[in-house]
């Protein structure tokens, strides 16, 4: 019991010290998390001096493994209690903070209105920023306890290395059964102070610690076994504390599993990053891989990608059904997207994952990567029981002088969007698709482990856009869903421009997305994208064929009228200086 009290810090005291610092930071916006915790060297010596006589006494009575198991159980209990008390202390502070209404989802708003009767509801009612601050506080608490546990493990290992001089140097790194290997060569070697050295060397032959003769092989084997047991138990204690911390963190993520997929990309990334940082830090100290917590993080990342894709699919379906196939001006931000995608220096490999102090744009290419930046092109779509939109809600802003004016400044617009030196006229759905493709690229850059899934979603949305456009224009479906009186050659020409633009953009999209995909998985995706590219080419050729057919029909119709017109050209009364009705009609058609 005395060893446990000396080895395990007072949880309440440690928690109070850490939380007092964390609470002071909750009144200010997140400006980064500092979780690096190091045990002071002097504190390490003090702790070693306290534990040394206790361990020697326990070695004499052969109680070290049993006491270390008791220590492990206590460490787990204290770790769980500290995390629980941290949540209890932080929740009232974080819930009392004003909630950003723009980032509140329907589920979280309902939980907040309900008063948060349960702990789960309180956790769900937290804003994304508040939840990150809670995780940050837990991170700091866990780091303190794990560093203390790691220090105890080092002390135990140091003592076991220095107590018996008859064990050969080869025995310093025993393989620990059931717990992995203990690499003492990489542990910090303590400088032996004169007092501690005297304590260790007071036993001239070092035999009183272990009963038996030094030349007795059974005694030597017994000493080796004791050492292995002690090293294993000290390592298992840190493993167990690490597992307990991982389990509690995973539960917190699980409580908010329904909310995280609906977050903005930037908000989700902050949670993703702090979890990755937590996993890396605890694995470094504890030495145990966090398979469970990594699995939950990967699962929520996949849910995030799937939800974001479903929202965009619903959006593009609604926009296409409401498209009137009228040319719109191209705001500057869309041209910037094209330039960033087509640039050979596209900042994908060198892009840094946004940290908690980064609430700005994720890239420096002039294109905002958060969903909030898409406000100019996409408005909210209700997807609870169906898709509810209006034609005005899905119009790209900046198509009129009034909408172009922002804070007294006029956004630059152009008649066409340029790709590969070719200008393309655009319609509303084409610009929205371009914006969505850039957002898929952002997700792929920030969640590289899900690049394969992102490419699959891009293929799906490209297929739908091509198929539905064909149905609406070539198939004249727009006459039913959009209220067009007829499908004119102008509509066909605009559809051809959009399809040609996307067809030319696909190679750039593929190049950017494939940078994070392993070579072994590229072949399947390449074949799918090649088929999509071919479908766009076939669609474009069909539109061109239809346009040529219309022009041929008009040509033949005008040729039949031409002989009658020619007869009147050389007449005596041909003094009319105005163009003929025939010429006006032909010019209008052209």
TrEMBL record:
InterPro entries: Vps54, Vps54_C. Residues 349-405 are annotated as: Disordered. Residues 355-374 have a biased composition (Polar residues). GO terms for molecular function: syntaxin binding. Its main location: Golgi. Residues 424-554 form the Vacuolar protein sorting-associated protein 54 C-terminal domain. Keywords: Coiled coil, Golgi apparatus, Protein transport, Transport. GO terms for biological process: Golgi to vacuole transport; protein transport; retrograde transport, endosome to Golgi. It is found in: Golgi apparatus, trans-Golgi network. The keyword Iron-sulfur does not apply. GO terms for cellular component: cytosol; GARP complex. Residues 376-393 have a biased composition (Low complexity). PANTHER family: VACUOLAR PROTEIN SORTING 54, VACUOLAR PROTEIN SORTING-ASSOCIATED PROTEIN 54. Belongs to the VPS54 family. This is Vacuolar protein sorting-associated protein 54 C-terminal domain-containing protein.
